Amino acid sequence: MGRLGADSDFHQQLLGRIRNLCLSFPETSERISHGAPAFYYKNKNMFAQYRDNHHGDGRIALWCASTADVRSMLIELNPDLYFLPPYVAYLGWIGLRLDRDAAWSEIESIIGDAYLCKIKPKRK
Questions:
Q1: What is the Cα–Cα distance from 108 to 100, expressed in whole angstroms?
Q2: What CATH code is carried by the domain that includes residue 92?
Q3: Which domain holds residue 61?
Q4: 18 burial type by CB count under 10 A (0-12 exposed, 13-18 middle, 19+ buried)
Q5: What backbone torsions phi and psi does residue 95 show, to the nearest 5 degrees?
Q6: Residue at 91 is within a domain
Q7: Measuring CA to CA, which residue among 55, 20, 15, 17 is closest to residue 34?
Q8: InterPro entries, alphabetically (predicted)?
Q9: Is residue 44 part of a domain?
Q10: What is the pTM of this model?
Q11: DSSP secondary structure code for residue 37 in this structure
């Protein structure tokens, strides 16, 4: 099974690092949503979700809230690393492949941007 699978050392270490990053922001929490660890602002606004081989897609990935312009730019600049995640892409979310050696500075930036997307008041 290699890197995939919840019991692998790679998976556990990666999820632990993602968890620490997501929970380092104020008023954040974690719970399982749709079978995967998800991270929330104020217990209701999901800003990131960790996905391991979602429906057999072979990816270890992070799905994050994003803005449409940032999402489009990232996918255009690096389509091997970024993708449109199923179910949430239409909401502006971006997928980041964690199994393709993304730089931690980039992962941190995506998580930070996702958090900021959810703490900003929505325009009416």
A1: 15
A2: 3.90.1150.30
A3: 4-119
A4: buried
A5: -105, 140
A6: yes
A7: 55
A8: YjbR-like_sf (IPR038056), YjbR/MT2646/Rv2570-like (IPR058532)
A9: yes
A10: 0.88
A11: E
